[in-house]
Amino acid sequence: MNTPRLETERLILRKFTEDDMDDLYLLLSDEEVNTFLPWYPVKNLEETKAFYEARYAANYEKAHAYDYAVCLKENNVPVGYVNVKMDDSYDLGYGLRREFWRRGIMTEAAGAVTAQLKRDGIPYITATHDVNNPRSGGVMQRIGMTYQYSYEELVQPKNVLVTFRMYQKNLDGNHDRVYRKYWNVSEVHFV
């Protein structure tokens, strides 16, 4: 299954398309939205399209991809994104345009994607947030993720040392599993 379309009470979660570049630009160019993300804000539509090609179009070619445009049902216009890496971390990531913060949109979207992952047999998900961005951790908690540990990482290309909090939700009933890769590769880690 490749990015199955999802609907919630207020949202449509679908693939980004080339028609979404203006809206994707609004999301990716906002410095405040991108403060805690590993990449720099885009500066123009050319950079937006390059980001789309590298991060979305390339993943949509794969057999399994969970890379969603988060759209309001009323107009099907992207206001955010949710994605899950298809490696052993099953890392959940998300972003939302600033004017839509504090409305429960990301919790609703991430919850819908998590439910789809469970239906598709994905065993667990992880997610991390910068300790200076506790609101992101709030989304993780509201969708049932549990704090596991913290670790330091030098984030590129920004070259900033960040302390991350790692959350996990096991979807297959194995409640004892803890994804340890971040712990194992970081010299500084703690609970």
Helix % is 25-40%
Instruction: Tell me the structural class.
Output: alpha+beta
Shape: globular
Order of helices and strands: EEHHEEEHEHEEHE
List the helices and strands and how they pair.
Elements: E1 6-7, E2 11-14, H1 21-28, H2 45-60, E3 66-72, E4 78-84, E5 92-96, H3 105-119, E6 124-130, H4 134-142, E7 146-155, E8 160-170, H5 181-185, E9 189-190
Antiparallel strand pairs: 1-2, 2-3, 3-4, 4-5, 6-8, 7-8, 7-9
Offer a few descriptive terms.
globular, five-stranded antiparallel beta sheet, alpha+beta, 191 residues, 5 helices, 9 strands, 28% helix
Question: Could you characterize the architecture of this molecule?
Answer:
Residues 11-171 form the N-acetyltransferase domain. It holds the Pfam family Acetyltransf_3. One of its GO terms (molecular function) is acyltransferase activity, transferring groups other than amino-acyl groups. The protein is α+β, with helices and mostly antiparallel strands. Helices cover 28% and strands 29% of the residues. It contains five helices and nine strands. A five-stranded antiparallel sheet has the order 1-2-3-4-5, with helices on both faces. A four-stranded antiparallel sheet has the order 6-8-7-9.
